[in-house]
Amino acid sequence: MPAYAIVDIIAVTDRPLMEEYRKVVAATVTKYGGRFLVRGGNHEVLEGDWKPNRLVVLEFPSMDQLKKWYHSEDYREPLAMRLKASRGTFVIVDGAAS
Predict the structure, then answer these.
(1) What is the pLDDT of residue 8?
(2) What DSSP element (H or E) covers 72?
(3) What is the pLDDT along the chain (98 residues), one digit of tens a residue?
(4) Which pTM value belongs to this model?
(5) What is the Cα–Cα distance from 81 to 52, expressed in whole angstroms?
(6) How far is CA 5 from CA 14, 50, 68, in A?
(7) Measuring CA to CA, how many Å separate 11 from each of 14, 46, 55, 89?
(8) In what order do the strands lie in the sheet with 54-60?
(9) Domains identified in the chain and CATH numbers
(10) Rounded to an integer, what distance in angstroms lies between the CA atom of residue 59 and that of residue 54?
């Protein structure tokens, strides 16, 4: 069953560092079988009061693979970069069985 990471980058506090993160993160995602489904793009809230800023959605083959990526040595340094360069929310969720 696929699993998804849903990220809302609320604020970027260090643009150059965030740009560097964006350059290196994709290779780590791909290595663990993941892919970006949404990476920014226009969005519109139709219900509720959530006010997302920059949405990112990643898909992985399974929750296990998503967690392996997030906790991997490969993502350790990029994660530290993202946490230093921005504030946001990061949620993971199981997808529907196909």
Answers:
(1) 97
(2) none
(3) 999 999 999 999 999 999 999 999 999 999 999 999 999 989 999 999 999 999 999 999 999 999 999 999 999 999 999 999 999 999 999 997 65
(4) 0.90
(5) 21
(6) 22, 17, 13
(7) 9, 22, 11, 10
(8) 35-39, 54-60, 3-12, 86-94
(9) 3-43+52-94 (3.30.70.100)
(10) 17
Between CA 43 and CA 28 the distance in angstroms is 26
The pLDDT, as a whole number, for residue 97 is: 64
Residue 98: its pLDDT value, please? 56
Q: Give the count of beta carbons closer than 10 Å to the beta carbon of residue 91.
A: 9
Going along the chain, which residue ranges are E strands? Answer: 3-12, 35-39, 54-60, 86-94
Residue whose token pair is 């350790």:
76
Q: How far apart are CA 64 and CA 39, in angstroms?
A: 22
Q: Which residues 6+ apart lie within 8 Å of 19 measured at CB?
A: none
* Collapsed DSSP state (helix, strand, coil) of residue 3: strand
Q: What is the pLDDT of residue 96?
A: 79
